[in-house]
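Sequence design from tokenized structure. All designs in this work follow the same two-part layout: the structure record, then the generated sequence. An example of the structure record is given first.
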């Protein structure tokens, strides 16, 4: 059985804006009410996809969701034609209008948790869309996310999101890392949570978004082997420093694991468990890079998003760090990357890419992608229209330039013309990727 990892990046939606919606996400709060450039945001995301595809790393796209979400506004009692619903909401509750307008589904790492078939007892690819209940603007994503994932992966085993209650708060693959010798063999699935109802350690300032009960339920329903599963608690101090997801403090790929030294509670024990369990499934050495505060503080990690880099395996078997452009001219982040590349591990190159529009909302390169390990048979069963090649890239660039605005401010969200533009854009996109009846409005 031959398997490989494909990065599915979400296309940024035409309403990408800065509404300061995500408490505990420092960039989102800092940039509240700044004008956004949805076109640039979408082109940056697409350029990252193209860059990886050109490196020989398999790449696919996920479509955005329709925003503003008028169905939610109607559920909340706003009535009339579309223009009236938007107008009334803008007058009564502009924050609500911003929330239902967020393009937040662009951060595909939060879309779902996936366990590939080499890891699961029934040898099926298991997919659990995240309930995202910790932030209202994200809690309206799962239903459409589930429909999109079903359309793209018709042969996978699709679970419903976990119950919509605080005990099961789930933020998807941003809190999940898989280490393995190669993708065809069973891997070690690492689940990271911020809050455990049975433990006392909890952040004091910002909310913990992922719960231990959610992580355990995901591992259970995905039929994972306990010998190949770890549950680690985030260091509460890291959450209070702005590490709202594990992927702001750690990233792993195959036998390389990079994390900040303050990422986990009782980190020596956490890393020892990873080492022991990895050794039992793979003869290849595990390379763990633990970056201490003296090299990069947690605050600098949050500023630069160094740990939100992607680590990808290239066709020649070496690995590359796809780092946010913010790291390039940051002395400490640069020095850390230099040290990583000189260590004689498979990680041998680094590239700096700009996803600045997304970064201003706290989303770096790794946030924009959902990793999917697919066997040959699963790859053949995947909807073909979403795989990025030169032709799809060219069509998507033209599509973005046709439909996306270059500036968006809070006041624009009430404009029914923007809503009509979004609907037309998604309608057009489903034709391009060959999924003509993907959305409820179609
Ligand atoms: O959920 N930002 C997102 C960023 C998610 C990043 N994802 C990962 N780390 N995997 C969030 O906090 C900001 C929206 C606004 O403020 O307009 C926002 O939702």
């Amino acid at each position: 059985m031959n398997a490989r990892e494909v990065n599915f990046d979400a296309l940024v939606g035409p309403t990408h804006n800065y509404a300061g919606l995500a408490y505990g996400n420092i960039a989102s709060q800092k940039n509240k009410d700044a004008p956004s450039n949805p076109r640039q945001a979408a082109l940056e995301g697409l350029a990252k996809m193209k860059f990886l595809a050109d490196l020989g790393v398999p790449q696919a796209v996920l479509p955005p969701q329709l925003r503003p979400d008028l169905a939610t506004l109607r559920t909340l009692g706003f009535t009339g034609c579309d223009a009236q619903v938007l107008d009334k909401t803008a007058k009564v509750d502009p924050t609500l209008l911003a929330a239902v307008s967020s393009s937040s589904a662009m951060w595909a790492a939060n879309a779902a948790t996936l366990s590939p078939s080499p890891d699961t007892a029934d040898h099926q690819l298991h997919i659990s869309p995240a309930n995202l209940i910790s932030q209202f603007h994200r809690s309206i994503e799962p239903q459409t996310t589930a429909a999109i994932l079903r359309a793209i992966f018709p042969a996978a085993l699709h679970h419903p999101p976990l119950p919509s209650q605080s005990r099961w708060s789930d933020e998807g693959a941003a809190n999940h890392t898989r280490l393995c010798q190669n993708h065809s063999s069973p891997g070690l699935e690492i689940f990271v949570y911020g809050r455990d109802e049975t433990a006392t350690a909890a952040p004091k300032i910002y909310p913990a978004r992922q719960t231990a009960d959610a992580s355990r339920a995901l591992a259970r329903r995905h039929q994972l082997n306990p010998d190949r599963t770890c549950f680690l608690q985030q260091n509460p101090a890291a959450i209070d420093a702005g590490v709202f997801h594990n992927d702001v403090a750690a990233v792993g790929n195959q036998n390389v694991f990079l994390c900040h030294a303050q990422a986990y509670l009782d980190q020596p024990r956490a890393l020892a468990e990873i080492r022991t369990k990895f050794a039992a499934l793979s003869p290849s050495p595990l390379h763990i890079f633990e970056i201490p505060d003296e090299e990069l503080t947690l605050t600098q990690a949050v500023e630069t998003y160094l740990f939100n880099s992607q680590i990808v395996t290239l066709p020649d078997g070496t690995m590359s760090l796809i780092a946010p452009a913010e790291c390039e001219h940051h002395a400490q982040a640069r020095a850390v990357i230099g040290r990583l590349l000189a260590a004689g591990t498979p990680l041998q190159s680094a590239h700096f890419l700009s996803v600045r529009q997304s970064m201003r909302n706290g989303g770096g390169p790794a946030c924009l992608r959902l990793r999917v390990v697919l066997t040959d048979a699963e790859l053949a069963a995947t909807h073909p229209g979403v795989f990025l090649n030169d032709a799809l890239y060219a069509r998507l660039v033209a599509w973005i330039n046709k439909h996306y605005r270059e500036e968006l401010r809070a006041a624009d969200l009430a404009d029914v013309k923007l809503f009509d533009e979004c609907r037309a854009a998604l309608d057009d996109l489903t034709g391009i990727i060959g999924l003509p009846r993907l959305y409820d409005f179609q």
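The first strand starts at residue 3 and ends at 10. We note this feature because it recurs in several other targets discussed in the main text.
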